[in-house]
Every structure is written in structure tokens, then in C-alpha cells.
Design goal:
By secondary structure, the chain is an all-alpha fold.
């Protein structure tokens, strides 16, 4: 009976370590995200204040305005890794590939020659 209790305790400790590890990783990712946002705002502010007033005669901006520009550019243009932006071009590319590949196979089947696109197929 003692060995069953010991096995149960070891399983419980293993589960607790796994949960603690996931929490630590989550906290680390959150801190990294905050650092990225903080530094991103400063980079945008620095670039804006360095270039825009001299080139276009615009006023300088503070960190909050730079952060707003960063967020707006993320919304409008996507980016910053996975999940951002429009996925339209890759979908269109896949559809084009399926269509073109099907035409090549059809041409090869009809002529008995290696797959070549049909004349005028685009």
C-alpha cells in the first residue's frame, strides 16, 4: 500500500512541476511581449522624430503616439509574426497552383507526353 501512495505523490509532483513550468513560460512570454511593445514604441518614436520633421515638416511625437502608430500599422498591414495580416495572396497562389497543375496533368494525359501547360493556359 505504501508503494501506491508513493507513486501517487510522485505523479502529483510531476503534474505540479508541469503546471509551474507552463505558468513560468507564460509569464516569460508576457514579459517578452511587453519589452517588445515598449522597445517598438521607442523605435517608432525615434525614427519619426528623426525623419518626419526634417523631411515633411511634421511635429515630433511622444511614446504613446508612436505606440498608436505601431498598433495602427499592425491593424492595417499585418505582420509581427504568425496570425497577422491578410492571408489572401497565399490562398490565391494555392488556387492558381491547383488549376495550373490540373491543366498540366490533363495535357499530359491527352497527349501522352510529359506534362506541359496547354497553349494559352495561364
Amino acid at each position: 500500500m505504501d508503494s501506491h501512495d508513493e507513486v501517487g505523490r510522485e505523479i502529483g509532483r510531476s503534474i505540479a512541476r508541469g503546471i509551474a513550468r507552463r505558468i513560468a513560460i507564460g509569464i516569460a512570454f508576457f514579459i517578452a511581449f511587453l519589452i517588445f511593445v515598449f522597445l517598438g514604441g521607442f523605435v517608432v518614436q525615434w525614427l519619426w522624430n528623426w525623419l518626419m520633421p526634417d523631411i515633411f515638416g511634421l511635429r515630433t511625437i511622444n511614446w504613446w503616439e508612436a505606440f498608436g502608430l505601431l498598433a495602427l500599422s499592425r491593424i492595417l498591414f499585418g505582420g509581427f509574426g504568425r496570425g497577422g495580416g491578410s492571408h489572401g495572396p497565399s490562398r490565391h497562389r494555392r488556387e492558381w497552383w491547383k488549376k495550373t497543375n490540373g491543366e498540366w496533368k490533363k495535357t499530359a494525359d491527352e497527349t501522352g507526353s510529359p506534362a506541359q501547360p496547354a497553349a494559352g493556359a495561364s
